[in-house]
């Protein structure tokens, strides 16, 4: 034993974990803004709902892109 800790693996998965956390925070912020907007103006729900789902899709697309880069690099 040399006393040095041998660590094997790939650091890319740590990057994916960070991107997944960022995606989760982003989705939370998108839907918090949506709920806040609908609570203030209930009649605007039909306008705000597609925007919220678009924000959800874009945020999750970035998380999936992070997953792809974690395995490609």
TrEMBL record:
Record-marked site positions (Reversibly protonated during proton transport): 60
Signal sequence segment: none
Topological category with respect to the lipid bilayer: Multi-pass membrane protein
Protein keywords: ATP synthesis, Cell membrane, CF(0), Hydrogen ion transport, Ion transport, Lipid-binding, Membrane, Transmembrane, Transmembrane helix, Transport
Location(s) in or outside the cell: Cell membrane; Membrane
Alphabetical list of InterPro entries matching this protein: ATP_synth_csu_bac/chlpt, ATP_synth_F0_csu, ATP_synth_F0_csu_DDCD_BS, ATP_synth_F0_csu_sf, ATPase_proteolipid_c-like_dom, F/V-ATP_Csub_sf
Domain V-ATPase proteolipid subunit C-like: 16-73
Main location: membrane
Transmembrane stretches, start-end: 13-35, 47-72
Entries under Pfam families matching the protein: ATP-synt_C (PF00137)
Family designation: Belongs to the ATPase C chain family.
NCBIfam families to which the protein is assigned, alphabetical: ATP_synt_c (TIGR01260)
Role this protein plays: F(1)F(0) ATP synthase produces ATP from ADP in the presence of a proton or sodium gradient. F-type ATPases consist of two structural domains, F(1) containing the extramembraneous catalytic core and F(0) containing the membrane proton channel, linked together by a central stalk and a peripheral stalk. During catalysis, ATP synthesis in the catalytic domain of F(1) is coupled via a rotary mechanism of the central stalk subunits to proton translocation. Key component of the F(0) channel; it plays a direct role in translocation across the membrane. A homomeric c-ring of between 10-14 subunits forms the central stalk rotor element with the F(1) delta and epsilon subunits.
Name of this chain's protein: ATP synthase subunit c
Protein species of origin: Arthrobacter jinronghuae
């Amino acid at each position: 034993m040399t006393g040095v800790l041998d660590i094997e693996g790939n650091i890319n998965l740590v990057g994916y974990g960070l991107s997944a956390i960022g995606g989760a925070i982003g989705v939370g912020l998108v839907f918090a803004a949506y709920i806040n907007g609908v609570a203030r103006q209930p009649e605007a729900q039909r306008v705000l709902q597609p925007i919220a789902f678009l924000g959800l899709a874009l945020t999750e697309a970035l998380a999936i892109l992070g997953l792809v880069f974690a395995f490609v690099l």
